[in-house]
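Weekly structure sync - notes
Attendees: PM, LS, DV (DV joined late)
Agenda: review two folding runs queued last week.

Item 1: First target. Sequence and structure tokens pasted below for the record.
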Amino acid sequence: MSVVPADFESPRLRAGSPEHKRLLAEFFFATHLEYDPERIDCPRLSDEELRRLTGLPFWQEAVSTENVTSNTVTAAAALEADPQLSRAIALQGLEEQRHARLLAALTALTAHYRIPIEFPAPYAPRNLEDDFLFAGFGECFDSFFAFGLFALARESGYFPAALVMVFDPVMEEEVRHILFFVNWVKARRMQLAWWKRPAFRARCAWIILKQIASRVKTARSLGGGGTPASGENFTLTAHQDIGAPVTLHGLLARCLAENDRRMARYDARLLRPRLVPGITRALVRILPTSL
């Protein structure tokens, strides 16, 4: 599947233009992966591998987070007047729900590996746009760290390669979701009257600050006997649970490298997320490698 035009030389399109919106929708439909979580063939695990898997503390939080996100994104399709973008958002909601199914399906994890998960009741969004923005910015944070953690889990041998690869389609979908979201936010803002744009920016900034504050609270608890990470923050502490001997500097550098590698596969005309990678690059430059 080629997602970057071989002869591509044009600069990025003007956000919110008909060409930009058409490219955004076409990119999302063209890169959609077809798979059925209930039909995935889960590998056989040894007793020790099974103990490691069932001992991870974040399965319930992960399922709950995906449940909230999938319902939020599905409902947010009503926000978009452009029929193609509305369809794309609805498709993203389906993919988010598929993530929850992958975690909770009987043949994928819960019954097969005896992980006790209770599937939560459907989440009803309260404010479509605010909830969609909150979920999207949260995904920008969590997926960035998940890319690095996935690479560490794959390379450390803590879990068998076949089990790690069960989740590879999820990683690719998260890349697409982030790309779609950051482009949609920019297009949404550019379509507003000029005098409404500052308020939209301020609302996005407030939501981002709330997400940052939540992650800072989690980071401060690392190694300090704090409470377990919440569902939206478990990616920040998961490296402790997968047994990966890595420093904070090493973890951040790996997350950054994986983010860049995965993003590079997609059309360069699409905007890339800048906040989380930008903060991480600054931290990698100033943090000692031993930390």
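Item 2: Second target, run right after the first with the same settings.
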Amino acid sequence: MNTFDYSQSQAWFARACKVIPGGIYGHFSPAPCVPVSAYPFFGARAKGAHFWDVDGNEFIDYMCAYGPMILGYAHPAVDEAYQEQMKLADSNTIASTKMVELAEFMVDLIPIADWAFFAKNGADVTNYATMIARAATGRKKIIAIKGGYHGTSPWMQATGHHGLIEDDHANVIRIPWNDFAALENVVNQYDGQIAGFISSPYHHPVFADNEFPAEGYWQKVEQLLRKKGILLIVDDVRCGFRLDLGGSNEHFGFKPDLIAFCKAIGNGYPISALVGAGPLKSFAAKVFHTGSYWYSAGPMAAALACLKELKRINAPNVLRENGTKLNDGLVRIAKSHGYTLKVTGDPGMAYYRLIEDETLMLQQEWCGECTRRGAYFTSHHNWFVSTAHSDEDFQRTWDIADDAFKAIKGR
């Protein structure tokens, strides 16, 4: 099986490094893509579950733009809704009624939601959630999970990152995932001082196996926080609408006060949302939080179309079936070559690791070999499947994985 050439992509990266810090910044940075020589840096176009880089190489995409793509790139219903709205207005001096329609739809769709608020990035709404928690409780401190990710505002980042100061974390307490005793201890230690507890619905760190909540974990957390007057905030930015259309908390059987959404809400169009319970509506109205493009009507129209389509096809079931199919095939192929591929997390957005090498170097090598053959895999982050992935895509992926295992065994 032939491997890809990335000469044009590398040339563009050299140009980018002259005028952009790091060439490509943030989570699209080449840094975690090891070996770097196995990965493209710049794309040309995308359709369905595939994208093409600037060298003309075609990839079956298992990162889905790191989560925003859920229905397939260039989905006709979503793109048409966006384009029709853009003919009328996008950013305007006054708000669009699309904002009201989208909020109404989300309130009907999501059981805990009595209101909705829209922004652009996940961090916009996770920040807003913590501000509301502080406004509603009159308290300062926020509890978060060690290794949890909620965006790149200073309080969200791990200590030691460049540009941070100690004061950024003065009121953030980190506890281990799935450790109810640790939560209980912190709540008692800082009794009357904690405004909110923010967490993803299950633990999906990078470079590590994903972990579901322990049996009864969320129910005990909810009960404790209610008793202590602490708001429960779910960061559903990554999982949202993939596990359950009513919020991932519905999948795990608990009721938060606030849920932050982004990524899949608009199938790639720039929009995020915070939804919340009725008693918090007045506090949300008092907290000033806004942005130059937060009222853009085009992405709101796209999000409304996306959510309607996700509901029509029962997307969480499709994603779970697609993910299970992909995973079973990859595990079987790995075993045929003498390897054990460990799969953790939800089947539609699982994390993969070859257990034969705890350093992840073997995993990096295999993912790189798959990518340079046309199945875009990363070794540090959970993957994603979409409703657009087909049986033909999976068969091609399995063939690529088989050839990649032969390549690494040959060394």
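Discussion on item 2: The two ends are 16 Å apart (CA to CA).
Action: LS to circulate a short write-up before next sync.
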